[in-house]
Amino acid sequence: MLHKMRLNPEPFAMIENGSKTIELRLNDEKRRMVSIGDTIEFSETDAPDRKIRVEVTALHSYSSFRELFAELPKEKCGFGTNETVPDDYMDSFYPREKQEKYGALGIEFRKI
To answer: How many CA atoms lie within 13 A of 41 on its CB side?
Structure first.
């Protein structure tokens, strides 16, 4: 199955150069449709014609982004190895109520 998702320029570039291999999303109804082996087509928000396709290799489901950040390698999620991720980091992307309702999902992938 093909899924389409949009990305800001910085994470798009990190996926493009291979430094980011886990995308962080709310584990809502749309993301629960994603399965291992599926294809995701990322498009850049500022340049929608720029696209990258990846194959989903693993799904990491957590009750919160805090739990996700404690378990998954930060560098695969687009952060520096020694970087501390603030507890409210994902609040700028998803309202806290939705985070509590749906939980967090790390979508691991490889470029195709």
So the answer is: 8
pTM above 0.85, yes or no: yes
- CATH level 3 topology of 2-111: 2.30.130
Two tokens, residue 42: 């990322």
Q: Are 112 and 39 in contact (CB under 8 A)?
A: yes
Cβ contact 62:71 at 8 Å: yes
pLDDT digits (tens, 9 = 90+) for 8-43: 999 999 999 999 999 999 999 999 999 999 999 999
Report CA-CA distances (Å) from 81 to 36, 75, 97: 26, 5, 29
For 50-75, b/e burial (b = at least 16 CB within 10 A) is eebebebeebbebeebbebbeebebe
Where residue 88 falls among pLDDT bands split at 50, 70, 90? confident
**21 burial level (CB within 10 Å; 0-12, 13-18, 19+):** buried
- Amino acid letter, 2: L
